[in-house]
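Internal tracking record. Fields below are filled automatically when a chain is submitted to the structure queue. Please do not edit lines marked as system-generated. If the sequence contains nonstandard residues, flag them in the REMARKS field before resubmitting.
Queue: standard
Priority: normal
Entity type: single polypeptide chain
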Amino acid sequence: MKMSWIRGMGLLVATLGLAACGGPIEEESVTDVTSTEQALRMCDLQGRCGTNEVCVGGPGGTCYPCGKYPQYCELAR
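SYSTEM-GENERATED OUTPUT FOLLOWS
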């Protein structure tokens, strides 16, 4: 009887441990990032973008929204 109780506790701990892990972290593939960036609009002829966006690459470059791409907005400051 004592062995089944210990085995049951071990099974419970293992199950809870696996449930807490949440599985592997999925990262965006390179093609997903590229297609997302292609959907962004271009900077105007003066190298400007809209509010809360930063122009990367000067006139004709890409406008990156600060909310989705904060790394570009931090570089521009």
